[in-house]
Design brief:
mainly alpha
Length: 108
């Protein structure tokens, strides 16, 4: 990440030991670790929010690109049993030429 080798890390630790002293160094290291963990959690939360917003945006693009297909898909996923019963309950359509004409000339 920072491209720090072993010798550079050793120098940093020695300087920290001299500046902070042996009694304060564990406390500072502990607080730095907690701060780093909190930073990582915050970054993860922000990343999840951005990913969710991106997925919502892509879904909206799909809706506006083909609204009829999206509406049908939404209805199918929301009310799957209604679609099945709707197809079963529909009466067969009769062609207009099969209607009988009554005496007034109108079709019945």
């Amino acid at each position: 990440m920072f491209n720090i080798g072993f010798s550079e890390m050793l120098i940093i630790l020695v300087v920290a030991l001299v500046v902070l002293g042996p009694s304060k160094l564990p406390e500072v290291a502990k607080s730095l670790g907690r701060g780093y963990a909190e930073f990582i959690r915050s970054v993860r939360g922000i990343r999840e929010e951005v990913d969710k917003a991106t997925m919502d945006l892509e879904e909206e693009k799909k809706i506006f690109s083909d609204p009829a297909a999206m509406a049908e898909s939404l209805m199918d996923s929301t009310f799957p049993e209604e679609k099945k019963t709707q197809h079963d309950s529909q009466e067969p359509k009769i062609a207009p030429e099969n209607y009988e004409k009554d005496e007034g000339g109108s079709r019945v």
